[in-house]
TrEMBL record:
Highest rank taxon of the organism: Bacteria
Keyword set, alphabetical order: NAD, Oxidoreductase
Source organism of this protein record: Actinacidiphila paucisporea
A Gene Ontology molecular function term of the record: D-lactate dehydrogenase (NAD+) activity
Pfam families: 2-Hacid_dh, 2-Hacid_dh_C
Domain D-isomer specific 2-hydroxyacid dehydrogenase NAD-binding: from-to ranges: 110-296
UniProt family annotation: Belongs to the D-isomer specific 2-hydroxyacid dehydrogenase family.
Entry keyword annotation includes Membrane: no
Start and end residues of each D-isomer specific 2-hydroxyacid dehydrogenase catalytic domain: 7-325
Name of the protein this chain belongs to: D-lactate dehydrogenase
Key word Phosphoprotein present: no
């Protein structure tokens, strides 16, 4: 089968090509699939998309006109896909049900530690032979409180690391996870978690019920020196409200690997362009904000699992199988 993979990173391409070799013909392209790049997909029965693809009704209709019948997304999240319309069109849609939770959990901790110990500022200074410690004062995580919102596989991996730091563990989820309870986590209401957390991390999916979960009211509940980490989905946080909170001099640090308007920005070199997103531009001016471009998942272990799952999704489509990765089965 001819497969088109879009939004492919340079390091990801050889892994995809090696996995599909001798099985299916795959073409890997860097551009993300959007209305503008839609013509590239013409003639491909299967299209593999990245998390920032825009798969709304017009794009889906264009894919079907071009002969596409399978969308296999290389991520666990799929809020960018209009599933109801895809089903009406008779398309098959699959995702990556799971991959290494440690990649994201460890990166969330990387952001937290870098913010707490002012690593970026310190490294920048020493490159200029400035070895002062002024402004680099951090604090122990030991004996402080972490609030974990979402205790699935990634949240559980994050919690296990927090336990290693000797932190007090607070959690919230629709259903408590026994694995986290064994680690010593106490499940509490969101109000209490936001009030008491010294470090707060988000690991829930984006849904109507979690959109702007962290808004002005929740931000006001947080401690003035709390650290907020988001490696899940950008729209979990109201970015405008976050800017206002930071302008008031509140929050000890903010680590964002995702941003609610990241599509068309993250994964691209914008260094020679004017940044027209005023909110993102403002966030980048705060010295206690650290932003990375949706790279938390980006380890060789996780990408290999994602590639393997993508190949399985194509094979399952051909065989007519339904698996845990299937969002819409083949008609």
């Amino acid at each position: 089968m001819d497969v088109l993979a879009t939004g492919v990173q340079r390091d990801e391409r050889p892994l995809l090509e090696a996995a599909f070799a001798g099985r299916h013909d795959i073409r890997c392209l860097e551009p993300t699939l959007t209305a503008d790049t839609l013509p590239l997909a013409a003639g491909y029965e299967a299209v593999s998309t990245s998390v920032n693809a825009v798969l709304d009704a017009p794009v889906l209709e264009g894919l079907v006109r071009g002969g596409t019948r399978l969308i296999t997304q290389r991520s666990t999240g799929y809020n960018n896909i209009d599933l109801a319309h895809a089903e009406r069109l008779g398309m098959t849609v699959a995702r990556v049900a799971a991959y290494s939770p440690y990649s994201v959990a460890e990166f969330a901790w990387t952001l937290a530690l870098a913010l707490n110990r002012r690593i970026v500022r310190a490294a920048s200074r020493t490159r200029d032979f400035d070895f002062r410690l002024d402004g680099l004062l951090g604090r122990d995580f030991h004996d402080r409180t972490v609030g974990v919102i979402g205790t699935g596989r990634i949240g559980t991996a994050f919690t296990a690391i927090a336990r290693g730091f000797g932190m007090r563990l607070l959690g919230w989820d629709i259903t408590p996870n026994p694995e986290c309870e064994v680690l010593g986590m106490q499940y509490v209401e969101l109000d209490r978690l936001f009030r008491e957390a010294d470090l707060l991390t988000l690991h829930v999916p984006l849904a109507p019920s979690t959109h702007h979960l962290v808004g002005a009211r929740r931000l006001a509940e947080m401690k003035d020196d709390a650290i907020l980490i988001n490696t899940s989905r950008g729209a979990l946080i109201d970015s405008t409200a976050l800017v206002e909170t930071l302008r008031e001099g509140r929050l000890g640090g903010v680590g964002l690997d995702v941003y609610e308007e990241e599509a068309g920005v993250f994964f691209y070199d914008k260094s020679l362009e004017v940044m027209t997103d005023d909110v993102l531009a403002r966030l980048l001016t705060f010295t206690n904000v650290l932003i990375s471009s949706h790279q938390a998942y980006y380890t060789v272990d996780a990408v290999e699992e994602i590639v393997a799952a993508t190949l399985r999704n194509v094979n399952d489509y051909v065989a007519g199988r339904i698996t845990e990765s299937t969002l819409i089965p083949r008609p």
